[in-house]
Amino acid sequence: MSQIRLAHFSDPHLAPPPMKLGLADAVSKRALSRIAWRRKSKVHRPEVLAALVADVKAHAPDHIVLTGDLTNFSTHEEYDQARAWLAGLGPAGDVTVSPGNHDALIDRRAGDPLAAWADWLGDEATGPFPRVRLRGPVALINLSSAVPTALHLAQGKLGAEQIARLAQVLRETRASGLYRLVLLHHPVAEGAVSRRKSLTDALELRAVLAAEGAELVLHGHAHESLVTRIAGPDGPIPVLGVPSASAAPGGHGEAARWHELAIARTEAGFTTRVSARGATADGEFAPLGAYRLRSARR
Ligand SMILES: [Fe+2]
Ligand SMILES: [Fe+2]
Q: Which fold has domain 3-296?
């Protein structure tokens, strides 16, 4: 297979199931987030997300890429709820999830809560990030920038070991002639979001990408459409972010949208056709425009 069609959306922030707050939660980050959710529940609408998912399914992509913030408070109830919702998107082998800061909001208790999503993180049940999936001409290189953060912070971090493994994976997949699609929750370009929301080791990540290259980087987190470019060895690397998949049109933030990415191998390298579809006031999704990215390799 020399081409593939992917759907990218992000930050669904699924409406949380009812939750009892214990005494220990009373002054916790989770309790404060719960209060924040009441404010945000007008922004994130389940019917908008349902319409987006229906629109994605109507386009029958070969693979779905979801760049994090499925949950709001990282509770076990939310992980289970998200798991059921993920299962409704299609076979787990056709859906890849990169976890977000909201998916790791509090310190992990016993075990790894992300284990509930293991089938969607990569093809191996366990193992360190990046998790890699090979689909047609594409290597899906799934990073995790989700780390528990201090109060009022929404930062992410990859860590030196994950970045070193990424360098190795980028080299190997390039040698195999694959299109390297890097996924993570946090934006990568300098100044894309405030320091409070930033990837703390973005500089180190950009250094590895500048040296090893990638054909495309996808992210979420900013809850807005972002088209940025970072330095690569064969020219700039495009970096695309999408708004929240549940953001209602006419609300505070940018309305929900998703991107269809049609990736094809050519004699000169690869082409990527990006088609954006966005939520309309009448509860449907409509085309917003399309453009083509070219990536040549020297
Ligand atoms: Fe988010
Ligand atoms: Fe986020």
A: Purple Acid Phosphatase; chain A, domain 2 (3.60.21)
